[in-house]
Amino acid sequence: METASVLSASHPRVQKWVEGSFGQLTQAQELTLPHILAGNSVLLSSPTGSGKTLAGFLGILDHLVRAHEAGDLGSGIHAIYVSPLRALTYDIQKNLMAPLEGMGLVEEIRIGQRTGDTSTTERAKLKRKPPHILLTTPESLAILLPQAGWAEALQSVRFVIVDELHSLAENKRGAHLMLSVERLQQRLARPLIRIGLSATAAPLPLLAELLVGTRRDCQIIEARMERRRRVEVLSPVRRNPYPPAGYTAQRVMQDIAQIVERNRSVIVFCNTRSATESVSIRLKNALPDLAPKIEAHHASLDRDVRLEVEDRLKNGELRAVVCSTSLEMGIDIGSVDCVVMISTPKGISRALQRIGRSGHSIHMASHGILVATNVNDLMECIVCAEMTRAVQLDAVRVLEKPLDVLAQHLVGMAMEGGYTREMALSTLRAAFPYRDLTEEELDSVLNYLEGGGRSLEKQYRENFGKIIWLDDCLTVPNKKVEREYLANVGVIHTEGMVTVYLGKRRLGQIEESFLKRLKNGDIFVLAGRMVRLLESGVGEAKVEDAMGRLPTVPAWNANKMPLTSGLAHEVARLRTELAARVGTDSNEEVCEWLIERFEISNSNALAIVLHCQNQLRVSRIPTEHSLLIERFVDDREGSDADLVQFFFHTLIGRSANDALSRIIAYRVKEAVGGNAMVTIDDYGFLLTLRSFQSLGLEEWKVIFQNGDAEADMKASLQHSELVKWNFRGVAQTGLMVPRNRPGQDRKIKQLRWSSEILFRVLSEHEPDHPMLVQSYREATHTFLDLPRAMDFLQLAPKLEWRLVEVPVVSPFSFGIFASKIKEGLMLEDPEEAIERLWREYEKKVGGAGDAYLPSGGAPAH
């Protein structure tokens, strides 16, 4: 009845096609269509497979059918669909043909794609005869806005669909897109109808504001699809929490191989591209008969390689695809039976998105398996599984007013013409990320764009000048600026990648820094293939097949995903609960509680209990109400007796620990001199100090005082590579160091050299330059999580402080110490380190079999 009622308001052609194709609408479509027909902006949040893309387009198709019958279609664009993924626009174009064919309007209603992959010939055709529905990306939309040839076509836009809105919210691409939409709105006589499509995310009112900007209404629709979701935790960790090196990796691959054998199609998600390559090659080795049907997929692979994998997966030709984040979003990949995640994806929204890729239809259940590779990982996985079942979402954090993106858009606005300073400020503030933009911030960016800033304009105005004022309006000084702008739109900066060719086929890209470590004849993995390096030149490398040989896995600079605050908090709560139970309840009682609460096996529950008891024999279990500091001096023969290790169990996530550890290391240097070696992970950080830097509990309390943490953070970053690395990206996005010159790509060395000189000049002579300010802001608020670190410093005085002298590295510190021994190596290497640490523990403390552990255990402190 609801479907009939909703459809009765739509055009008969739309109604007939829906009823003939599906019989009825999904809940997402029922709830969304009336609002779009009424001309309201809408944010639709619903799980993958709920029909949300069609929900966004049905009202637009209704409008186009009516416009066609009324003779009002014209030659302009009526709707713009923006996706963060080029592959998604390719999918949407294919999927939109079905309703147009069903309604008999294929010839009348045109659909066109304009992305970075669109050929020059196709672009020219689109400009001559614009589509009624334009499918594009944030970058390509920004390129069209200032071009005179597109101005008339854009005048007729009524709808903008933003797909995968949640994935844009927290990054520069989101801020970039929202400014483009406001610039589009500025030239239209009536308000745009904005349609946001998002996977499950929170808080929805914030996402709605991001979509429509300030001072506008938006209908929020949350479609709770009645679809079963099964989330399991699988771990090779049995009764022994610390199995021998190699055991875990071998068992993980055996378990994943069995899952692949049991199912028709499986996606295996890894958290880094290096892991993707490693796991794909191991899975092929574990299943030689299925090896041709197992492929790798990640963003560094060539587009043709990725498209081929996606098409083969959708067509049912592949049994398994191993990927990083590249298949998380809504590319149509057909029906997938099961999703495997090696370790947690560090957040619940991401876990839900990944799991939603399985059972990709409204009537099928989703099935996700979290694979824990060690006992600490197991504790994180069981918490992640519980939160995923309960849909406890992490809050989205919108990226606030990036100044380099602002600079880029001001040049685009200058090319459009007609913008006074007041009009520019009003347009910018209408975009949610820039709602609090101050006049001082705007003026600082405008001054930079006029001549480079105070320290550069006297000598280099011609080099850096991108805008001038003419009759109180922004404009550009010459055509060169326009050409340079169009060649450099976007926020993804050049990273020194080398294209790899297998024969004449482009396989993908590896980092220049990785290639420098190789010599001709070395073997590495790319696209799930073992290849041998033949020769390398400027920006490219030639390889040949090297099947059956042992590889060296490429290490991309993609950061490890940081644990979200919600998941970190719940892991801290689990540790707090375990600290209360282990030592008072019997092993059996604690195991029963874990099994019932988290739906895990008895052997995995026992491994967690033994892990906690082993920790208690030398230290304490860190909790949400305490700050545990462990002091360890390695007295083994051959060790440096002057080194002191301090483990800080802060439980606040990798990015926040990164920020906090830098502040603390800086304060130690200020207090007693000397540098500290810092190692971080999600649950704490390690400071390696010299004996003269060793502090007692009361001294550490002083070091952790809140004070001016932000100033200390800035001081600690003053000579760091992190700010310099961020400046390279900011300088490119802010058009200070263009990535590309029209007609030629700039070499990485040129970019780095230019950025290096500018960074040095600005740091010394103009520290308040907007591009330098933005670099520090990104270092502290995007790469690091300074706000969360500062929250911890405020909380620290209220915590129960414990400084424990440990005779060995404690079990809860095994992971971080293994990272210190060898950061970022393959799975076996940390395992070997942990095996060594466990042997040392056994030698000093005694074994940990449950035969000699008392039923309740006994805390050492």
From TrEMBL:
InterPro entries: ATP-dep_Helicase, DEAD/DEAH_box_helicase_dom, Helicase_ATP-bd, Helicase_C-like, Lhr-like, Lhr-like_DEAD/DEAH_assoc, Lhr_WH_dom, P-loop_NTPase. The keyword Nucleotide-binding applies. Keywords: ATP-binding, DNA damage, DNA repair, DNA-binding, Helicase, Hydrolase, Isomerase, Nucleotide-binding. This is ATP-dependent Lhr-like helicase. Residues 251-404 form the Helicase C-terminal domain. Pfam families: DEAD, DEAD_assoc, Helicase_C, WHD_Lhr. One of its GO terms (molecular function) is DNA binding. PROSITE patterns: HELICASE_ATP_BIND_1, HELICASE_CTER. One of its GO terms (biological process) is DNA repair. Coiled coil: none annotated. Residues 33-219 form the Helicase ATP-binding domain. It comes from the Bacteria. It is an enzyme of class 3 (hydrolase). PANTHER family: ATP-DEPENDENT HELICASE LHR-RELATED-RELATED, LARGE HELICASE-RELATED PROTEIN. It comes from Prosthecobacter dejongeii. Belongs to the Lhr helicase family. Lhr-Core subfamily. Its EC number is 3.6.4.-.
